[in-house]
Amino acid sequence: MLLKELRQEVYEMHMGLVKNSLVTMTSGNVSGRDFKTNLVVIKPSGVLYDNLTPEKLVVVDLNGKIVEGKLQPSIDTITHLYVYRHMPEVGGVIHTHSNYATCFAMLGKKIPVYLTAIADEFGVEIPVGKLALIGGEGIGQEIVRSIGKCPAILMQNHGVFTIGKNPFSALKAAVMVEDVAKTVYLGLMLGKPKVLPQKMIKALYTQYHTRYGQK
């Protein structure tokens, strides 16, 4: 079986989507890129998470050709592969329809840096990409064009895409974007929040990414 370790990682990240209530039924998907071979492991289309196993994941090349797997890959595979081809530093891509973040996507509203948590994790506002048809390269093109320095993007009327150096980094971004979207949504119900000063945003982001956690 090809890419056994990456299969296991991508499988565990799918379970992370379920654990964090970011997906329902068969929606959402995770992929991971093997940098040595440029092969990609991705969820098969329409398979329930309860029925998913590492062995059922599909391995494709960057052009979408199935290299290993008996099932058809996710309909979002073209989007994932476009990102990988045009963003060589990316090793993980995740797509969800998580409720609060998708609410902002539905309205075409970006999420400004209202919270220190947004400054810490993202360092910039969470952008919105233009409406694009599912199943083609349009979504991937818009992600590459509009995501900027943020690891997450809200796609108009669709949902959330996140990227990272590996599948775990993409999962963290997906979890965090939903968490801050919920807080911002609730805050907007109470009043008009203030965007953090740019100098503070930069300082918080730098501190979080250089000093936070264990080394």
Summarize the structure.
This protein has 7 helices and 8 strands.
List the helices and strands and how they pair.
Elements lengths: L3 H16 L9 E6 L4 E4 L15 E3 L5 E3 L8 H10 L5 E5 L2 H9 L8 H6 L6 E2 L8 H9 L5 E4 L3 E6 L2 H24 L7 H13 L5
Parallel strand pairs: 6-7
Antiparallel strand pairs: 1-2, 1-5, 2-3, 3-4, 5-8, 7-8
Helix pairs in contact: 1-6, 2-5, 3-6
Structure in words:
A hairpin with a 4-residue loop joins strand 1 and strand 2. The model has no long low-confidence stretch (mean pLDDT 97). The chain contains seven helices and eight strands; from the N terminus they run H-E-E-E-E-H-E-H-H-E-H-E-E-H-H. The radius of gyration is 17 Å and the shape is globular. The two termini are 34 Å apart. The chain has a single domain, classed as L-fuculose-1-phosphate Aldolase (3-Layer(aba) Sandwich), CATH 3.40.225.
For the largest beta-sheet, the strand count, sense and barrel status come to: 8 strands, mixed
Computed over alpha carbons, the radius of gyration is 17 Å
Order of helices and strands: HEEEEHEHHEHEEHH
Helix content: 40-55%
When the domains are counted, the total is: 1
Low-pLDDT parts are none
What is the typical, i.e. mean, pLDDT? 97
CATH architecture: 3-Layer(aba) Sandwich
Strand order of the largest sheet: 4-3-2-1-5-8-7-6
Shape: globular
Structural class of the secondary elements? Answer: alpha+beta
Write the CATH homologous superfamily. Class II aldolase/adducin N-terminal domain
Count of alpha/pi helices = 7
Q: What is the CA-CA span between the terminal residues?
A: 34 Å
- CATH fold name: L-fuculose-1-phosphate Aldolase
